[in-house]
Q: What sequence folds into this?
């Protein structure tokens, strides 16, 4: 583990000044798997149950870590099909998903989640800013689209807003 000056930011550009820690790529194979999932549903700590979906393992871990700062309970999936299975089996308060994924993209996932549980908001996080139109959002049940790189505060604010807990 190394500590550097900078602040974590998820996406495709550099990091702004601040202090953060990271593990180098060589240590990735020995990193422990994500924490076990906790039961879904809000609790008295103020957090919400979040399903986070991304096919990029590093991005998935970064999003999970950002959301954990908000004391949310987080479950993860590495693709849309796995996410849909998890979504059907647990009561999530919100889904945060990447847009571009193999087999089932974020819009398809949002649409299918809406069929299972219509009231659960979906937040799409994408490097393809501007690709998702208002019509796409409405048609597929997407509550918010966030552009990568996304800051933790922006992600946490979006989750609070779409779940009505902010």
A:
């Amino acid at each position: 583990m190394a500590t550097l000056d900078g602040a974590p930011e998820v996406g495709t550009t550099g990091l702004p000044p601040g202090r953060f820690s990271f593990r180098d790529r060589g240590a990735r194979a020995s990193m422990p798997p994500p924490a076990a999932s906790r039961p879904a549903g809000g609790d008295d700590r103020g957090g919400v149950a979040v399903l986070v979906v991304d096919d990029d393992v590093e991005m998935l871990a970064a999003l999970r870590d950002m959301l954990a700062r908000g004391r949310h309970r987080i479950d993860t999936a590495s693709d849309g099909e796995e996410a849909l299975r998890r979504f059907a089996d647990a009561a999530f308060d919100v889904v945060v998903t990447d847009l571009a994924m193999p087999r089932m993209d974020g819009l398809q996932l949002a649409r299918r989640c809406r069929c299972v549980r219509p009231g659960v908001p979906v937040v799409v996080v994408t490097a393809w800013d501007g690709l998702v139109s208002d019509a796409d959002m409405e048609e597929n049940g997407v509550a918010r689209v966030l552009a990568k790189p996304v800051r933790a505060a922006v992600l946490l604010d979006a989750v609070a807003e779409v779940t009505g807990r902010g």
